Amino acid sequence: MTEGTKEPLPDSRNVPALLVALQTQQRSCTVVVTGTPGGAIHVRDGLVVAMETPGAPGVEGLLLRSGRIGEEAWSAVRAADTTHEHLAAELVHRGLVGAGELEVISLSALFDAAFALSLAVPDSWEVTDPVPTLYRNAGVTPERLLGEVSRRVNLLAGEPGSVAALARTRLRTASTARIPGIVGRLPARHQDVLATTDGRRTARDIAFTLGRGLFSVMIDLRLLLDRGLVRPHTPSTEQRPSTAPRIAPPAAAPSALDSTSLPRRLPGRHSAPAHRPHD
Amino acid sequence: MSDPVTDLLIALRDNVMGVTETTLATSDGLVVASDVNKTHPESMAAVAAATIALGHRLADQGGTGHLREISARCSTGHVIVTAVGERALLAVVADDGLDEAAFRREIPAVTAQLRRHLDKDV
Prior knowledge:
The complex is a heterodimer of chains A (about 280) and B (about 120). Chain A has about 280 residues and is of the alpha+beta class. Chain A has two domains: about 150 residues, no CATH class; about 70 residues, Orthogonal Bundle (Arc Repressor Mutant, subunit A). In chain A, helix 5 packs across helix 6 and helix 9 crosses helix 10. Chain B has about 120 residues and is α+β, with helices and mostly antiparallel strands. Chain B has a single domain, classed as Beta-Lactamase. Helix content of chain B is about 45%, strand content about 30%. Chain B contains three helices and five strands, in the order αββαβββα. A five-stranded antiparallel β-sheet of chain B has the order 2-1-5-4-3, sandwiched between helices. Chain B is globular, with a radius of gyration of 14 Å. At the A-B interface, helix 2 and helix 9 of A face helix 3 of B.
């Protein structure tokens, strides 16, 4: 039924090029991206309105985790709109979130998801019919989206590739953070992040735990790293012992007939006990 | 410390975004191995064993064939219990951003590998 399906999409080299093509055609669709992480990009009338990815908390996660909306109220909203097309309007209508506030959350979740998706190379993508999603914004152009993503990457980047590496790193609290008075002087936001760095969580895991954006958590982590309060977690060295045969390394093997090597005991020789003076 | 079974649990957390804690337990609720931080593995093992037993009964009642997994979808995450052969089960705790596609891809191979390890036990 969508008018856009009549017009074939040009082969796109990458997702940004696809989004530009969708903007030109004013399409309403959902682009399903597979990868690690994958995600869904929701396009309405050519503009990107929402993105969902396991790499960054979505609007629902941000609202519920932070305690901004209770579970009961959220269930009621979902029950009131079974199509899930007008969830945002329902939230505002019930006075659970202000229209402006929801727009800010919706946009920041969109930019955050775009940032998370930009840290991985997608395996493939597919344009599907529009899937209902929770959003409240007028939509952003692919150019603005790319601009916001590169701004975030530039703010974090130390050297090329470091942002994706930071996102994958599991961090743990450094011993300096246990010195009395140091943590107490940090803003509450940094203290929360510090409390969740346990050597198991990546930046993304911390973002989900706290109900905050991935980018803002990464900015905090970069600052805590710079101050030496957190450091990358190195897996425990308490490994199972190796079952490899216990042999000397080949370099030290027989070729060396040097005088320092001990005489080799051969079977049948030196078997008789040597005479010892005190016997 | 690190044995192949625990390594498999850690690898699952590494490979699937959103997986936070895992407990491998016997069908009668005893812990075999765990990769946990917050959950209490003994309690998780006991509750998961009871859950999967009920799941088998549910599948019977529903006439819906063989039970694959039982999942508790909650406001800020999931707990998914999967049978590992007849003798064991795997309880996975995940956050609300669980990469379900990756989870569906990984879990059959992980349970098959766990099963091979456990089948060697006599």
